[in-house]
Amino acid sequence: METLAAGAYYIRNGPFPFSRSHIEDKSLNPKAVFTLWKGSEEKPGKPLFTSNVYTLIQSKRRSRPTGVLPESGHKQKLFAFLRGERATVWKVEPVALVVMISYVITSAVDGKFWVSTPPQPGAVPGEEHQIEVKTLILNPVDPRYSSEAIFEIVRA
Predict the structure, then answer these.
(1) Domains of the chain and CATH, by start
(2) Which of 1, 30, 35, 82 has CA atoms 20 to 30 A from the CA of 20?
């Protein structure tokens, strides 16, 4: 699969869904996007794209573009924007694995990767881990990407 067709998709890191929090304040401030616990309710996202370059829309009730805050630096996190802030353009590239085709998602501008931190054994049940956006050191041979940077994108 070279590109994703228009439509709604679920995004997962292994068995862990990607979504905004199920509990949010009522403000229009940017909303964090998390790696949730296995079995959590999934909210589909919609890619808007040209070729394999996308503006990923992640929604709870309505579509919201995604981007990073702070806009620069090493501690960037993924957010859904509600007030029309400038969305980040993401490059979605297929990664062939033995059992499925998965994807890495990088910023089209600076090449930083989405990185998931799935819940670890002993973690507080229900604790959410926000998706980070950071530079990765890639392996010169397969597997090139760490499992935290590989996402499954499936039609909703």
Answers:
(1) 9-155 (2.80.10.50)
(2) 1
